[in-house]
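Async update (no meeting this week)

Hi team, since we skipped the sync, here's where things stand on the single-chain job. The sequence we agreed to prioritize is pasted below, unchanged from the tracker. I ran it this morning and attached the output directly underneath so nobody has to dig for it. Comments welcome in thread, and please keep replies under the output.
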Amino acid sequence: MASQAHLLLPLSFLVGHRDWPFYIRLTITNVPTLYRSGSTLNITTSKLYILTVVVEKVFTPFTTSQVLVVRVLSPLPNHPSLLNCLAILKIYDPRYLEGREATYSSDGSLLRKERPWTLDKEVFFFFVPFYSIGRSPMPEFTYIDYLRASPNYKRGSTNPRECSVNELDKEVEAVEHLKAHPDCWYCDDVDYEVDFEVHLCRRASDSWTREVDAYHILATSSLSGFTVPTFYEDGDLILDETRAYIPRVILLEYIPDVTSVSSLGDISVITPWHIRTLVATAVKFNELGVIHWDINRGNILIGSKRAVIIDFGESTSQTQGGIKKFSDDDWWCQVDESKDLIAVKRMVTQPDPTTANRLADAHDFRKISEKMG
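Output:
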């Protein structure tokens, strides 16, 4: 059966305009057959084992990854007890991310049309040299410029470009610009679709890389299996279809009987022990060489015996891919900017399920930090 979930988000989340006050509703429908309950998935792990799992449950919406509860059907040499047990499988497949859905204003009018996946658009992620996998900033000189420099590029106007990249940062502005400049290169619908595909591929790749870097550090610490999920494996999803982008995966501990702070109905279950444990965990993250950057109520899980921080898709690690990227002095400058500790205290002392968003300005919460010592 098709699965459906609703998510109410500010428009700024989608089009980058922080001053617009109205909201839109996103609907995730028709979970792909590949991820439905009962489906069998095969994975090639980083150690070149073939791992088979069966899907037990799927969580929507698919924001930066697809999160599934799976049952492990084949043995993992490093984790033999995991056989026939449940685990969390995070799949970073841009094909099924929620950003593809059509978006609507509060009055039901269409703001952005649906952007379905196609192989032709996905291929651009690999054949355009200006988009690299990793943490380098997005260049202003985009793949569109690269294409138009090619003698084989014939589509669109031959007029000089009429507008700068900065003038088209916001999609709604681009739509209005298109009405006034129908021949403008940067207003071509197809260009936007390909640009969007490249963006989703890059986001999926970057999130996976950041999570793996963080878990490789945390997996050998005392936090693993206690205040962060146990990290089992990473690898690639084996697909029967032709794809340019091979989805990466992470296999993590399934933690039963926990609830995110954003979903708690009774905040009294957050005890002083939970708070102390989470604060100590945030401190330990930084000491080990991990900055979370996205500690919000949805990323903190509370149970009777566990207090867990999850989702390291926006994290920064001092060691990345086995290489130390920050000196100790530079690292602690990064830590000072992050305010992860203040964010943790804010999230567990003032739960508010309606505002489970990233801490936008940690300086606003300095007083909370001072009160808690």
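Quick observations from my side:
The first strand starts at residue 5 and ends at 10.
The radius of gyration is 22 Å.
Reply here if anything looks off.
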